Amino acid sequence: MHISKWLVCLGLLLPSSLHAGEFQAGVARIAITPPVPFWLTGYAARTRPAETVRMELWAKALAIQDDRGGRVVIITTDLIGLPREISGTVAQRLARDHGLRRSEVLFSSSHTHSGPVIWPNLRVLFDFDETEMARVRDYSAGLTDALATVAAQAMANLSPAQLSWGQDTADFAINRREPTAAGFRIGVSPGGPTDHSVPVLRIAGMDGTLRVVVFGYACHNTTLGGDFYEVHSDYAGIAQLELEKSHPGATAMFLSLCGGDQNPNPRGTRELVEQHGRSLAAAVERALGGDLQNIRPPLETAYHVVNLEFAPQSRLAFLAEAIEGDKYPLRRALLILEAHEQGRPIQYLSYPLQAVRFNDNFTLLAMGGEVVLDYALRARRQFPGENLIVAAYCNDVSCYIPSVRILHEGGYEAVDSMIYYGLPGPFTEDVEETVFEGISDLLSRSAAK
To answer: Domain residue spans in the chain?
Structure first.
């Protein structure tokens, strides 16, 4: 009798005890708010630096390790985007100091347009004097150190954890590619594709207490416009703050999904920032309280770079642009002509892709640049068994990544934006197929063993 009771109790305990040591997780954060006054980035319309800080900016790191040696460190930042000059340097330091492979470090940016200049990202927007340039470079150097530090801190904080995921929806994102008689412009396009899903990754302690929540949304982090001159992390920052207030001791982290052609609607005021942020936080709370799916090992990662070709552009065309263009095309032309003179014409973009796969029930696909929504929609159709979360603005935010549909339609995301990124543009028509060939290769590399 006593033996049978003991066996029943053992049967009840076995499932949880078997899973208890499957994952360890650690989290850390570090402030990355710039010293004011400081120039903000993302809008060409600004004419002066920001004088005040409305919200602190943060870099947060989540380290996850499974019981088979698989590991990843996800670093999120309240910034416009990280260029490879910074992410690459941090990855090299983490490889040197902690043995992390490149595929085991993922950098993500919220793409707030009320954050500091991150040199050399969007450098065509600015014409700094020596003093201001020194301040910008100093900030970028300090940011590099901060990202390496916060990653190391997260890895030092590892402890047993349970992972699960779910999703809900928030409806304030809208397609911004408005068709007009003169072509596509940035506006409001209710008939265009949108994705209102809010995927949520929950990391809890072994007692079930929430430790970290990672959530995403496919929408530009641009509720505030170019007339705003305060440091702010926009709706993504508000959502993180709301979640951390509701769950004391927990850390909230935001992933910007494929929202290159999506804007908040309506937008333009701090009141709307609060509204959208609370709406997104509420969606995350609903997901946390809903039917979550457990995540199991193994944890596998892969990192792959593909070359995206630019359509041929003659040197003479950029000479003309340097003579006849306004200040932004002029600066772009000078950068491209300088590359020609140095014997390294810009013919393609080295484009990073990354996958973080947990067994066969959760995969995070991380794409560089400002990726339009078409990519996420196609990826989920093409790889239906992956349970894909497709994040953009990862590892290197070098320019927009248009789909072939948007490339044919033209407009800002396909053509004009290349000016501000200092690239020749547009891409050739095989851009989308080249990216998906890379994604297919990447997912096969990260397949669970």
So the answer is: 20-299, 311-346
